[in-house]
Amino acid sequence: MSLYDDASLIMYPSGYKEDKIYSLKPTDGSGDLTFTRASTATRVNAEGLIETASVLGAELVVNGDFATDSDWSKGAGWSIADGKASYAGSGNNGLIQSSIFTTAKKYQLKFDLISNGNGIKFWVNGTQNIFSSNLSTGSYTYYITANTSGSAYFESTPTFAGSIDNVSIKEVIENNVPRIDYTGGGCGSLLLEKQSTNLALYSEQFDNAAWAKENITISANDTTSPDGTTNADKISELGTNTYHALSRSVNISAGTYTISIFAKSAERNYLIIRSNLSGSNVNTTFDLLNGIVTYNGHTSASIESYSNNWYRCTITSTSSLTSVNAAFLPSNTNVTNNNLPTYLGVVGSGLHIYGAQLEASSYPTSYIPTLASTAVTRLADSASKTGISSLIGQTQGTMFVEFVWKGVSSVVTDSSIFSLGNQEYGNSSIAISNYNGTLYGRITNGTSVDASVNYGSMTLGTRYKCAIGYANNDFVFYVNGVQMGSDTSVSIPTRSDVYLQNAHPNSKSVNQAILFKTRLTNDQLADLTGGNKTTFNALATTLGYTIL
After folding, report:
1. Percent of the chain residues topping a pLDDT of 90
2. N or C, which end of the chain has less CB nearby within 10 Å?
3. Do residues 431 and 439 touch, judged by C-beta distance below 8 A?
4. How large is the average pLDDT for residues 210-224?
5. Residue 293: inside a domain, yes or no?
């Protein structure tokens, strides 16, 4: 029998819906976590592409397969028969279903166009035209943000003499959707992040006038981006013997900031991020062929691999300025100092870029698109479950969590990595937690700290496997197979709730969180937190889940 057979709760990122993260155990849903984030957010999907996390709502169309001649209002020339809606008229007439769309909501429209498709249109409430009329036969999917409320409206034109079938319209829900993230490949993890704001406007539209161009041109939508669509731009040099730069200035307050951009080599293999964050203009050079930082003039820098030879290039520095200038420069050589890369440009030579981000943070968070003239904020993630005292050992137990550390919140206080009870001051809790980047295991009873064992500072991007074993007068904390410390004078608080993120969010990717109602032995704790990452694909399949 596996040790996991004895677990009372297993959260392994295997599935989700709006406001909910499914747990593999128990199987009746009583251990599923409640999730909130009242904003959109991106993730890296299983194919390695950046996308906005979303789920589809319920079907809004009635009789979309045209099984009966009902539920649709038919204009002259439209008929419903043989499992399809057909038009055989000669004018502009509608096939309508009312009360489908709500203003400002996003929807997925799907339908099949059979026989002659030329001359069909689709409108939101007769006012918002979604596609041109010159469609060939086939299956179509469109994403619509409704500019008005009202009906779904297929319109014939005089040239249309065909049929449609399998019409589906569902709301695309993006707020409060958990993110199962596959950054770096492998198995997915539950991405939980602090709030952050992208101050870099038009983050994918470098041809916009908001971006200053010095001795370069921008070719918009030149190649496939990390999101899988053709919306990445190219910086191309002019044939001048000087530096070549794309830049912009942004008003900021004093603090620590991170600048990041996705880049891919073309004729040029080096990207330089140049900024005055630290008070003077300094460079960081990224080798886009080998995926390494070759020179760093900022406080810290990193390069992270994405699909199709893209890299996310990142610098961080602390500034006392009220305005920062950030520049992105292609280079024909490896610049290992703070000089501008001056050389005779070759017209059309350069590199590809996508997704610029400037955020008040000491580390990069997930990409936040800004597709207009205003900054965009991604709110903090929260995941918890209350009312599950039956799944928590009340006099003895074990809690285990495996996660990759992403960074601390700007709030220097206790924040939950995995806790039984909310860690707000004065509450009783058993917690694996973070305080300003320091990892510890702790038990509190009200304002009294009964046990506290410190691991030390965590490193960004590092995986940690932590476990607390507890019973009356018996507390032990393990990290990555090693006992960090113990306490033999401790009382166990009664708890009925679990938190992976509390009121003071940190940023992490959670690979699994497990509860046992018994205090595992020290040998079992060492085994649980040591060795290789445990995967649950077979268990998930057995329990009827699909790994997303």
Report:
1. 84
2. N
3. no
4. 97
5. yes
Domain that holds residue 520: 3-51+381-542
According to the model, what pLDDT value does residue 538 have? 46
Residue 286 domain-assigned? yes
Residue 408 pLDDT level (bands cut at 50, 70, 90): confident
Q: Is the pLDDT of residue 1 over 50?
A: no
Work out how many domains the chain is built from and give that number.
3
Tokens of 273: 């991020």
The rounded distance, in Å, linking the Cα atoms of 292 and 539 is 38
Interval 481-530: pLDDT, tens: 999 999 999 999 999 999 998 767 889 999 999 999 999 999 999 999 99
Kindly state whether residues 26 and 120 are assigned to the same domain.
no
DSSP 456-468: EE--TT-EEEEEE
The predicted model gives 306-315 an average pLDDT of: 97
* Residue 183 within a domain: no
pTM: 0.90
One domain for residues 431 and 365: no
Burial of 154 per CB tally in 10 Å (0-12, 13-18, 19+): buried
- Verify that 46 and 95 share a domain, yes or no: no
CA distance 476 to 472: 11
Domain CATH for 140: 2.60.120.260
Pull the structure tokens for residue 426. 């004065």
Whether residues 390 and 449 share a domain: the answer is yes
Pair 255, 124 in one domain: no
Tell me how far apart the alpha carbons of residues 442 and 449 are, in angstroms, rounded to a whole number: 7
